[in-house]
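Archive entry: two folds, one per protein. Generate the first.
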Amino acid sequence: MPLDHRIRTWANEVARNAGAQSDLQKARAIYEHVVDTVKYDKSGHGWGRGDIYYACDQRRGNCSDFHAIFTGYARALGIPAKFVIGLPFPARGAGEIAGYHCWAEFFTPATGWVPIDASEAAKDPARRNYFFGALDENRVELSQGRDLILTPRQSGEPLNFFVDPYAEQGGKKLADLKTRVLYRDVG
């Protein structure tokens, strides 16, 4: 996650405009800013990589783009923050999971790690307050972090995020691995 002068300037502006003093107030200001200014929109190209510059310039994308801004701005203000990725599950029924879902967490000494889901808050404004400090139970976490190095170490570049299986053969990444995640109610 780059933390250059531009990102620090943007993050400081958000905190200053909100009058935020404490880390908790600053995190809330960032969350509100992201929910207010980023649209959940997966049209076109560039979204879905968690690229903070794309997300800040375009003000649209998917969950990885929302949380790139949150995580980057929090870190730029000295607040520990992490990217978390997993799978969303519907509340009931059976079917196939179409893709990943991610969220973020930040840390303050007074609160410990606090989860946020700005993209879900943007999609469901009635739950905006809920998704600052809580997550619904219909998800499973698979990994934390970005630019990941596996053990044993992969031959290729660090993984942007880790949600799909990764395999190498002869030191080369195997392409086009197909995965399916199915779910169903039991009992």
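Generate the second and append.
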Amino acid sequence: MDGRLEHLQIQPSNIISTGVVSFKNGNPVIQFIIGEQDKYLIGNSLRFTGNIEILEGVGAAARPPVNASTAAMDPKLGVYSVISEVAIFSQRSKQQIEHIRHYGRFLASYLPVLSSKQEGIGHMNKSQCSIPNAECERLGLVNNVNGSGNGTGTQFKGSSFCLHLPSGLLNSREPIPLSANGWGTGGLLLEITLENDSQVFGSNDGTTLSNVFYQLSNMNLICEVVNPSADVLASLANQNQGSLEYNSISSYYTSVNSTNAIVNFNLGVSKALGAFFNVIPSQDLNNTRANGFACLPFTNSDGSVARLNQLVWTRGGVKYPYQFNIDTNVKDLALAVPYQVEDPQVIRNVIGAFMPCADVKNTQFSPITFTRDIGADGDDKYQADAGTMFAVGTAFDNISNQGVDFSSVNLGIQMELGLTTDHPQTIFLFVRNKNTLIFNANGLQVLN
């Protein structure tokens, strides 16, 4: 684009006097305002930065967990664990443009699918404080006394982070116009809702944690904007409307607890491109005895894996996008056969929910991470490479990229499972949909 690149640094608009926010102390929402201006935002340049401090104890006696503490965080997510929701609005009209709920559960699959283990050890470890090993994550972030500000020579409290916020709008290849003069969104309001401490932290030995919490400080939003040249700006001044195409992420959840699991979702979108879901035992959510962001296969109450034997996707009750049942590689095997390799077709299809498989250059999916081999107690905390990354998904349209209409018909998922005990499983479904944002001097409208 013709113009001059500028860098912005924005502080929260609702910051409290101490500059420290946390879920525990009743400050669960952080707001940033990118004001209306005749400029274009480069969405994928946006970063949420700050320091995170993890403490254990009550009041002034709270200190970073010692090495003997059992407090741990999900190694796939790091600091991303503390974000529950991301919402983007027009700053001028307050019209909602995109809202991603269950953000940590979304990223628990999104990040491993599209990044390698080497990236997890390297730049992701520095930017989001994650590392694909549960014990390294515990010692490097949760028990990081050196980064707590209590040691000699430390300049700040907590570990530094710099997070890209994956979302449909911000990942758009097109710059986002911020103008309020008919050819833009009228600025943006970004709202980050923080996650409950009991969901963020889990014990690495199955015991219940108490009084472990996180707090954020020195928060900023940094981004790049393009200031159009005088000629371009003069041309834009004659426009009184415009549009922008982008993908959005919609989230849904339900639970299953039977061998014949049938779920239906009313998506209400007309250009669905793909969908995927991950699974966790319902009892592990908001439970400090377990990792609430684990992406486990279906499990029974005794910790055994409940095999996914058959999978059928439907649209309005008709098989779609596959005109056949997906019978997995263990469907006809006796239960006594410990076949640990997950079905390759299931793996391929879930990767396709994010982008065409041929375009995926880096991934952490492997026989080690996408496996039926989990711990005897039904968790993955001792598994290599950040634990299991089980997910199920499908692409609806990777050819025309125009999407499939689910505005008046339901998405159905039928599964034959090995769930033989009373052990509810929560399913978090995420749908990628193509949206069109239309804006003029009177406001904006989202067509999905």
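Annotation attached to the second fold: The chain has two domains: 3-244, 250-436. The first helix runs from residue 103 to 113.
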